[in-house]
Amino acid sequence: MRIIIIQTNRSRLNEALRGAGHDIDGERFPEGYQEAPLAYDAVWAVALAFNKTMEKLAKDGLSLRNFTYTNKKIADDIYEAINSTSFLGVSGLVAFSSQGDRIALTQIEQLVDNHYVKLGYYDTQADNLTWLDRERWAGSGDRQKVSRSARGGRALKPRPVRPFVE
């Protein structure tokens, strides 16, 4: 149900952008198009964390209005609330690690001939890199190759092959 609603909203957004003269079909999106869902979900994550924090502070006779940059108790309550926040947002599952980083797949792209090409994905939870072997290097050959021997959850590390001279 949620995916259908997201796709319906995206379709309406794309139609509105076409009407405003943007070449959506040619994959020429307005600035911020891809980042907008992330920003929307970030605002919701903060709002939900503040809501959890307000409930906890109310039990102690406090509120967010008591927050100051030197009030460690309230800062810790906000941090704890953010780390326990999890919901299905417009950009996918929104959850955070104990360090406060968003837990999500990171898509790796390269701009080739004015189009973004997906090169792979990095899964922060599994510490796993999925590489699609689509990268292109400028010039007359590969400057470096990605070691294919690293598997099983270890990050792949680039290794130099030979110096590149044009």
TrEMBL record:
Any GO BP annotation: gamma-aminobutyric acid signaling pathway
Main location: membrane
Signal peptide: none
InterPro entries in the cross-refs: ANF_lig-bd_rcpt, GPCR3_GABA-B, Peripla_BP_I
One matching Pfam family: ANF_receptor
Keyword field contains Metal-binding: no
Gene Ontology MF, one: G protein-coupled GABA receptor activity
The keyword Thylakoid is annotated on this UniProt entry: no
SUPFAM superfamilies: Periplasmic binding protein-like I (SSF53822)
Receptor ligand binding region domain residues: 31-113
UniProt keyword annotations, A-Z: G-protein coupled receptor, Glycoprotein, Membrane, Receptor, Transducer, Transmembrane, Transmembrane helix
Cellular localisation: Membrane
One GO CC term, this protein: G protein-coupled receptor heterodimeric complex
Region entry Disordered, spans: 143-166
PANTHER family from the UniProt entry: GABA-B RECEPTOR, GAMMA-AMINOBUTYRIC ACID TYPE B RECEPTOR SUBUNIT 1
Protein name as catalogued: Gamma-aminobutyric acid type B receptor subunit 1
Native species: Eumeta variegata
